[in-house]
């Protein structure tokens, strides 16, 4: 029974090495998805909040505009980090401000633009795998493929010079640190990204090119346009989510596939299942160690047989929602031929991830190419010996050693 007494520490306790290796959210492991659909939690800063965990409850919190992101800005709300968010990015806005920005961004970040990148993504993947093959087995799939592909695609899409990618990777990694770095170091990484992108945007004003920065600069809607700071914030967001989320999640996905040999065999026998497999793997594989965006109830709201009072904060547990037995049959089982994954890994409602189509395309290209070119790909070490990263918002592997004996063109 949900109660305001004895709140649980959040992010949930017990998220130690075993949880990371298994890639099972500790809250799901502990049975909270069934027994505590709405959980009262205590955060390191700002006090207590609620965590919605059932699939339908999470969708309500994500879509119901009475749960406000904007109301958290500039206030001492429950959070995992010590600083109070002061800047409004598109991630922190409510309609109509959010609607205005999203319309303008979508004019530049179109499905057509993403699909035009598919042949280039395929070329990059083939080149990266050629380099891994030339070096010989075993190889590190994180260094060889998972990190460079999304960074290369995102930088080329935005118009970032090739030689700057190493420092951008360093800054994006720092920007999502929770306990791995000091708050000052994490903020310094984020500020470096803002400074870099601001300077690059100024160059594009004098030298427009066929890239996303220029497209965002030129996007208009009824005489409205994005200003300098808005474009910079959007570009930084795309770099961080594209590099951190996509890179590490692909490593997580491949880890899960290689440690579920029956599902891997299905995919090898039927490569046409790749797109379906991507959706199921995204449903099954947790990514963030916690949801960093709190929403504030603008009025009293009934949710999960509990009254959320006006002014109280609510987080959503996407991983628990994706494993909710009310929505999915055998949710703790990974089945790449599941008829309808219908996950909410990319969110729901007005804040549904802008880069979802790009991430899907990259996952599809990477997975289909790996299956085709490495028919006997396997882990090169015991799963328990894999090095997992800690203290950051995004879960993932520092290395993913793999081996193979057969290679196809």
UniProtKB/TrEMBL annotation:
Top-level taxon of the source organism: Bacteria
Single annotated GO MF: oxidoreductase activity, acting on paired donors, with incorporation or reduction of molecular oxygen
Keyword Flavoprotein: no
PROSITE patterns cross-referenced by the UniProt entry: CYTOCHROME_P450
Entry annotated with the keyword tRNA-binding: no
Key words, A-Z: Heme, Iron, Metal-binding, Monooxygenase, Oxidoreductase
Pfam families linked to this entry: p450
Record family assignment: Belongs to the cytochrome P450 family.
Protein name in UniProt: Cytochrome P450
Organism: Kibdelosporangium aridum
């Amino acid at each position: 029974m949900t109660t305001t007494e004895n709140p649980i520490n959040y992010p949930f306790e017990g998220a130690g090495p075993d949880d990371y290796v298994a890639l099972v959210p500790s809250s799901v492991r502990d049975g909270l998805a069934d027994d505590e659909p709405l959980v009262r939690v205590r955060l390191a800063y700002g006090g207590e909040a609620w965590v919605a965990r059932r699939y339908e409850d999470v969708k309500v919190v994500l879509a119901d505009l009475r749960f406000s992101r904007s109301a958290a800005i500039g206030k001492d709300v429950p959070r995992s980090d010590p600083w109070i968010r002061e800047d409004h990015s598109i991630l922190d806005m409510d309609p109509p401000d959010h609607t205005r920005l999203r319309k303008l961004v979508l004019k530049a970040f179109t499905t057509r633009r993403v699909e035009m990148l598919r042949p280039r993504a395929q070329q990059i993947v083939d080149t990266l795998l050629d380099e891994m093959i030339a070096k010989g087995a075993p190889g590190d799939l994180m260094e060889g493929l998972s990190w460079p592909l999304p960074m290369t695609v995102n930088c080329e899409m935005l118009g970032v010079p090739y030689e700057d990618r190493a420092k951008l990777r360093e800054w994006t990694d720092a920007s999502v640190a929770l306990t791995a770095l000091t708050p000052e170091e994490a903020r310094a990484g984020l500020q470096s990204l803002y400074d870099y992108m601001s300077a690059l945007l100024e160059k594009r004003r004098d030298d427009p090119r066929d890239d996303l920065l220029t497209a965002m600069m030129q996007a208009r809607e009824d005489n409205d346009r994005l200003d300098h700071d808005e474009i910079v914030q959007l570009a930084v967001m795309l770099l961080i989510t594209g590099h951190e989320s996509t890179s590490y999640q692909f490593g997580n996905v491949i880890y899960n596939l290689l440690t579920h040999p029956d599902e891997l065999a299905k995919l090898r026998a039927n490569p046409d299942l790749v797109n379906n497999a991507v959706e199921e793997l995204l449903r099954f594989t947790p990514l963030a160690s916690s949801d960093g965006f709190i929403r504030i109830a603008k009025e009293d709201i009934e949710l999960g047989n509990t009254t959320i009072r006006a002014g109280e904060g609510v987080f959503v547990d996407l991983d628990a929602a994706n494993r909710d037995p009310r929505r999915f049959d055998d949710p703790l089982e990974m089945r790449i031929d599941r008829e309808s994954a219908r996950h909410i890994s990319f969110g729901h409602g007005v804040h549904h991830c802008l880069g979802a189509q790009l991430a899907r395309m990259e996952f599809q290209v990477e997975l289909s190419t790996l299956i085709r070119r490495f028919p006997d790909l396997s882990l090169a070490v015991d799963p328990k010996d894999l090095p997992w990263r800690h203290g950051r918002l995004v879960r993932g592997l520092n290395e993913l050693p793999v081996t193979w004996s057969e290679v196809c063109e």
